[in-house]
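lol forgot to send this yesterday, sorry. struct tokens for the thing we talked abt
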């Protein structure tokens, strides 16, 4: 696909935004420009904690935009990392004069509890897709999704509890106000995300606040998840009680509940807003893709409809082209970190004990079938059940599952895990390759994975420009056809040998939880069946 050069954009690092001038950086190796750590909202601190984001203050002079801002405050091992002042975004574009370029705004993964815009760096992808790539920090954990009666003011957005999603929508407003200055087309914006970011993207589809802010979405490994406000209130109350005991304000849980009951709404709100942010983040723990441990994306009625994704049934949502991603062994990284398997991975008995090996393999097989299906097939089916829905395209990324492409050890443990496709878009080696530097990316498999990466960028480019990945503008690539209920080959398989990409529409179809359970019941020993259904899969999004 050729795009004419014009004089609409002056290719230099110094650019003007609505709020002031910024000076970015040049990526000589990739022929791109970047601007990092740009404020898109006022810092959500002090009185602005748990409020809908507002506009940032303007500045005078030139703001340096060469370094990433701090990530949103989050758990990091036994401590916390990042800052409560975190509402910043990053922009990359080709170092050319082209204007009216498509824009992709990306929301990172991490369970809505961890991660940062730095996780998806777009200096290579911007050039490969001839587009503007923007990655966004948004509020996480207890600072991003929080329900508590003491904070209610009567303002629907402030009371929603959906601060992280409101941040994403605020970033999209910033794009509408500023991206033309970077040569972007405000009428051709794709909202994209991975994992929790993809779930946020799908929630934005049904949000009445998203109207006109994007024309397409790309949801990589994100299912349809929302929570009731009551779940959030219960979680915040439990966390607050725990904190009161830890802080010495109460000697027991009962004592803490009594203390809460004696405070006025204003006193309790003040106590919560003055609490050190790291204590709040720590009190909420981690999720491991379980909504119960961290309810978020609340059906509040203002940001997300009370009926949640049932609003699709009435056609009351953003009807735009959709690209869905999933992975062949989507569940493997969660099995790898599951308490039921960690000891046998660490002491290597997973590779010598036949029962443990079979249980782990079963977790990968059936957990991935249910989880990848939840992220692709279930979303595609739900969206295409509505007559007005434009085309939906789905893929399954399978690189790393063929024998001989990656080491036998990494293939056994992970294969093509959740998130592995992101490095193939960004060109970075931040995921599995960082965890297993010896057995994953190698000189031997480089030709095949580079061919696959180039093809994925071509398909994405075509989708960003037109809403249809087609053949990626390359005659040698397979035509990517839309999802339909009766398609013989509904999903695009993205794979590669050591030397060549293997890409084609596939007959693979992953069934839902009930069908997967029935298969497990039939094929697995009772002990393995119970381990997986009652412990390993229990409470996960795809198993609810």
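and heres what i got for the seq, position by position
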């Amino acid at each position: 696909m050729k795009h004419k050069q014009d004089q609409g954009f002056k290719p230099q690092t110094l650019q003007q935004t609505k709020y002031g001038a910024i000076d970015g950086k040049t990526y000589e190796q990739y022929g791109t420009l970047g601007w990092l750590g740009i404020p898109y909202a006022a810092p959500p601190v002090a009185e602005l904690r748990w409020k809908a984001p507002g506009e940032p203050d303007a500045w005078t002079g030139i703001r340096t935009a060469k370094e990433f801002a701090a990530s949103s405050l989050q758990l990091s091992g036994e401590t916390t990392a990042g800052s409560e002042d975190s509402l910043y975004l990053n922009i990359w574009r080709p170092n050319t004069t082209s204007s009216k370029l498509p824009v992709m705004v990306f929301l990172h993964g991490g369970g809505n509890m961890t991660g940062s815009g730095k996780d998806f760096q777009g200096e290579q992808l911007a050039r490969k897709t001839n587009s503007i790539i923007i990655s966004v920090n948004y509020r996480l954990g207890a600072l991003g999704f929080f329900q508590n009666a003491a904070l209610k003011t009567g303002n629907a957005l402030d009371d929603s509890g959906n601060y992280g999603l409101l941040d994403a929508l605020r970033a999209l407003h910033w794009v509408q106000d500023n991206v033309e200055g970077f040569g972007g087309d405000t009428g051709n914006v794709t909202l994209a995300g991975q994992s929790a970011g993809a779930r946020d993207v799908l929630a934005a589809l049904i949000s009445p606040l998203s109207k006109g802010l994007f024309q397409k979405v790309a949801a990589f490994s994100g299912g349809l998840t929302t929570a009731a406000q009551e779940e959030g209130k219960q979680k915040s109350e439990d966390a607050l009680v725990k904190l009161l005991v830890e802080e010495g304000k109460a000697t027991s849980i009962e004592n803490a509940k009594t203390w809460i009951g004696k405070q006025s709404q204003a006193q309790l709100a003040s106590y919560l807003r003055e609490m050190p942010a790291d204590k709040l983040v720590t009190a909420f723990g981690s999720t491991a893709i379980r909504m119960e441990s961290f309810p978020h994306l609340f059906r509040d009625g203002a940001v997300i409809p009370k009926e949640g994704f049932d609003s699709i049934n009435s056609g009351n949502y953003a009807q735009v082209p959709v690209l869905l991603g999933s992975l062949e062994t989507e569940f493997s990284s969660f099995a790898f970190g599951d308490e039921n398997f960690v000891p046998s991975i660490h002491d290597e008995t997973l590779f010598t004990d036949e029962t443990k090996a079979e249980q782990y393999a079963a977790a990968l097989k059936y957990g991935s079938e249910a989880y990848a299906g939840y992220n692709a097939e279930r979303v595609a089916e739900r969206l295409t059940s509505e007559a007005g829905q434009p085309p939906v395209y789905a893929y399954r990324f399978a690189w790393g599952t063929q024998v001989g492409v990656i080491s036998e050890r990494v293939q056994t443990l992970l294969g093509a895990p959740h998130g592995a496709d992101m490095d193939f878009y960004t060109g970075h080696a931040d995921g599995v390759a960082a965890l297993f530097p010896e057995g994953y990316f190698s000189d031997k498999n480089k030709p095949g994975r580079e061919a696959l990466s180039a093809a994925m960028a071509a398909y994405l480019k075509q989708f960003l420009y037109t809403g249809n990945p087609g053949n990626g503008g390359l005659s040698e690539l397979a035509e990517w056809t839309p999802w339909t209920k009766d398609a013989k080959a509904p999903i695009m398989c993205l794979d590669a040998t050591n030397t060549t990409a293997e890409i084609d529409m596939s007959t693979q179809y992953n069934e839902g939880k009930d069908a997967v359970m029935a298969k497990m019941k039939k094929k697995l020993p009772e002990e393995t069946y119970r381990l997986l259904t009652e412990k390993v899969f229990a409470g996960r999004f795809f198993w609810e």
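The mean pLDDT is 95. anyway ping me if u want another try
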